[in-house]
């Protein structure tokens, strides 16, 4: 008995069938994992602004993002999407290559179904299936995907470049590396390109590994508590949830030696640093950037001077326990570093007696030039307290102040950059050490802090920002804190105010004065 030949379905007919299934929210033909299908349903059937997917390595994050963008472009002609990452170069080398593999899986050809030239363009174009007499070619009127560089640029601190575009939706890859400001701006730009016409949500998909930044604060932690707002979604996908991935990759995750890195990448543990050695409370660290009630006080400058390698120069300008200016830069000659601090001291009227620079290594040269105060990490503990050295003492005192919400960091024009995340990360890796010892109190060594930062960052980073905060505690320990303005003393009757006579007045080199009144000394700026 002759078997009739099977009827071959053309690739374009099969593609049309898949597109129709996608529009009807049938995702089974896409050959996705159960977690990826769950995410597809969330992205396409719920009114949400943003969905975080992943939280561990090997969970199929990139593949999901590329599938979602691809089928939206095919199903809804004329829509406009974006795929973003911290660096455009890495986006093209990684995520875009995955996108091309996804296209190949569905037998889509570059130059026919879509058009992309990596050397000359940062946009992927899709053929318009419904051309008209006004279209110049088959690509006009089709959907497109912009590839976006989302790193913070000092020349564009408000991401105004992103604010000039309108998108249907988009996908941020490795969102843990992307500044919160970029996400905020893109969130205002989605839902603005044919969304009503096609009844589409203006949604952003964010894929990530665990990171203690806005993803932890706004998505993971509320999800864990069952308090996630309806406008957000969180779907955890780990290597064990991805039956489409390479089996050897799971073995590589098992072989990770760094325990913190293994907890983050293999286990998807967002609380990877939650242990008894934690010195700084995470909530209090995030509060530092919103504690606007902290009053201004005496001005100080603290500086951590770059020594070698990737170390950075960090200069903080203080008014009381309020940071009002931050300079972060790469290494420069000692005289240029000194001149930088001089300019900031002149701008904010800070005398050299209230400038404290790290004196270890090359910092000693800066201290010599400026004739300012020096901070020696291994220096003698003040007030005879039970700490291993001055740096340790300042770290514990700083933690107490921050945990009591007595600090405010005003990022100003740098708000929305990665600076907030970096400060939180660097203070988070300063931990108690030798906690079983009955002797002096210790903190972990700097090399260990660098290794911990490396587990959440690409490459080793020195905790220079954290180191610049520590010297601010020296005046506090020496009880040098004084008022920045004159104080009146009220007697019992609220209607009469008596100002005590000045018994001594000293004019400083910056024009400010130190006065003695009623046995108390005050600085008048």
Walk me through what this model shows.
The relative contact order is 0.10. A hairpin with an 8-residue loop joins β9 and β10. The longest helix has 15 residues, at 61-75. The protein is an alpha/beta fold and 525 residues long. It has helices at residues 11-23, 34-45, 61-75, 88-93, 95-105, 180-189, 195-198, 214-225, 247-254, 259-265, 282-287, 334-348, 363-370, 390-403, 419-428, 446-454, 464-469, 473-477, and strands spanning 50-54, 80-85, 114-115, 123-126, 144-149, 169-172, 204-208, 232-236, 299-304, 313-319, 322-329, 355-358, 373-375, 408-409, 432-433, 442-443, 489-490, 497-498, 502-507, 513-517, 520-524. Helix content is 33%, strand content 17%. It is elongated and about 105 Å long.
Spatial order of the strands forming the largest sheet: 3-4-5-2-6-7-1-8
Please identify the oligomeric state. single chain
Low-confidence stretches: 482-499
Determine the N-to-C terminus distance: 104 Å
Radius of gyration: 29 Å
Please outline what is shown here.
With 525 residues, the protein is an alpha/beta fold. Helix content is 33%, strand content 17%.
Distinctive features:
525 residues, alpha/beta, 18 helices, 21 strands
Topology (elements, then pairings):
Layout lengths: L10 H13 L10 H12 L4 E5 L6 H15 L4 E6 L2 H6 L1 H11 L8 E2 L7 E4 L17 E6 L19 E4 L7 H10 L5 H4 L5 E5 L5 H12 L6 E5 L10 H8 L4 H7 L16 H6 L11 E6 L8 E7 L2 E8 L4 H15 L6 E4 L4 H8 L2 E3 L14 H14 L4 E2 L9 H10 L3 E2 L8 E2 L2 H9 L9 H6 L3 H5 L11 E2 L6 E2 L3 E6 L5 E5 L2 E5 L1
């Amino acid at each position: 008995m002759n078997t009739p030949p099977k009827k071959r379905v053309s690739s374009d007919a099969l593609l049309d069938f898949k597109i129709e299934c996608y529009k009807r929210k049938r995702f089974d033909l896409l050959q996705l994992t159960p977690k990826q299908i769950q995410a597809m349903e969330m992205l396409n059937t719920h009114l949400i602004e943003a969905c975080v997917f992943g939280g561990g390595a090997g969970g199929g994050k990139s593949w999901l993002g590329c599938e979602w963008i691809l089928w939206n472009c095919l199903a809804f002609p004329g829509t406009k999407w974006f795929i973003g990452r911290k660096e455009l170069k890495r986006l093209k080398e990684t995520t875009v290559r995955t996108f091309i593999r996804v296209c190949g899986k569905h037998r889509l050809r570059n130059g026919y179904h879509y058009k992309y030239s990596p050397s000359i363009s940062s946009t992927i174009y899709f053929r318009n299936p419904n051309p008209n007499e006004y279209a110049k070619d088959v690509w006009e009127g089709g959907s497109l995907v912009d590839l976006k560089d989302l790193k913070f640029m000092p020349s564009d601190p408000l991401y105004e470049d992103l604010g000039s575009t309108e998108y249907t939706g988009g996908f941020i890859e490795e969102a843990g590396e992307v500044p919160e400001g970029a996400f905020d701006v893109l969130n205002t730009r989605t839902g603005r390109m044919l969304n009503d016409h096609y009844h589409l949500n203006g949604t952003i998909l964010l894929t990530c590994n665990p990171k203690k930044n806005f993803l932890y604060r706004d998505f993971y932690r509320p999800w864990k508590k069952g308090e996630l707002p309806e406008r957000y979604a969180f779907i955890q996908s780990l290597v064990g949830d991805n039956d489409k991935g390479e089996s050897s990759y799971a073995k590589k995750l098992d072989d990770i030696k760094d325990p913190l890195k293994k907890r983050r990448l293999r286990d998807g543990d967002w609380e990877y640093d939650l242990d008894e050695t934690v010195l700084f409370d995470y909530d209090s660290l995030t509060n530092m950037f919103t504690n606007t009630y902290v009053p201004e006080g005496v001005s100080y400058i603290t500086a951590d001077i770059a020594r070698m390698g990737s170390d950075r120069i960090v200069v903080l300008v203080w008014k009381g326990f309020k940071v009002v200016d931050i300079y972060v830069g790469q290494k420069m000659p000692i005289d240029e570093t000194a001149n930088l601090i001089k300019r900031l001291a002149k701008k904010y009227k800070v005398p050299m007696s209230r400038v404290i620079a790290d004196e270890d290594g090359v910092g000693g040269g800066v201290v010599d030039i400026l004739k300012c105060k020096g901070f020696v990490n291994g220096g003698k503990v003040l007030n005879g307290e039970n700490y291993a050295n001055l740096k340790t003492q300042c770290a514990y005192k700083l933690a107490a102040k921050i945990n009591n919400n007595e600090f405010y960091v005003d990022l100003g024009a740098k708000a929305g950059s990665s600076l907030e995340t970096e400060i939180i990360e660097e203070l988070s890796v300063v931990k108690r050490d030798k906690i079983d010892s009955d002797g002096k109190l210790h903190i972990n060594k700097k090399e260990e802090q660098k290794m911990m930062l490396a587990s959440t960052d690409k490459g080793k980073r020195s905790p220079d920002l954290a180191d610049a905060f520590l010297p601010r505690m020296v005046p506090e320990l020496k009880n040098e804190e004084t008022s920045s303005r004159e104080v009146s003393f009220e007697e019992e009757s609220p209607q009469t105010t008596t100002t005590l006579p000045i018994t001594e007045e000293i004019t400083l080199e910056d024009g400010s004065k130190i006065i003695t009144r009623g046995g108390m000394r005050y600085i008048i700026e």
